[in-house]
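quick q for whoever's on today - can somebody do inverse folding on this one?? i tried earlier but teh output was garbage lol. tokens:
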């Protein structure tokens, strides 16, 4: 069959493409939320101003926020993996976009999860 005579059978965005877009946006929103939680959960940096005014800085992780941070990053990883699997099943043409943002989300969330999990 000639490539030029092949007619396009797709009629716009189907359910899986919309699901991919929604999962990608939700995953990145969760990652932003995890970044905010990370800011408040991480150990505080003691500065000269802290020492001058006698303010104690927290040296360890805030355990109550670490639970939420691990959960958010875990959800990001799961959503990324689901997105990669759906995209792999759905995208078969060379003209389909590569959805590299899902891979970046997986790497960023996985790295953050490893960082927090090890307590570094």
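ok took a stab at it. sequence:
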């Amino acid at each position: 069959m000639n490539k030029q005579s092949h007619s396009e059978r797709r009629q716009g965005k189907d359910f899986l493409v919309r699901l991919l877009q929604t999962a990608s946006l939700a995953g990145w929103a969760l990652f932003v939320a995890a970044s905010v939680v990370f800011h408040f959960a991480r150990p505080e940096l003691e500065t000269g101003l802290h020492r001058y005014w006698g303010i104690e800085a927290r040296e360890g992780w805030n355990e109550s926020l670490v639970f939420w941070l691990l959960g958010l990053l875990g959800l990001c990883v799961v959503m990324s993996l689901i997105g990669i699997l759906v995209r792999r099943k759905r995208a078969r043409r060379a003209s389909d976009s590569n959805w590299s943002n899902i891979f970046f989300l997986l790497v960023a969330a996985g790295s953050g999860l490893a960082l927090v999990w090890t307590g570094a």
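fwiw The radius of gyration is 21 Å. also The CA atoms of residues 18 and 78 lie 18 Å apart. so keep that in mind when u check it
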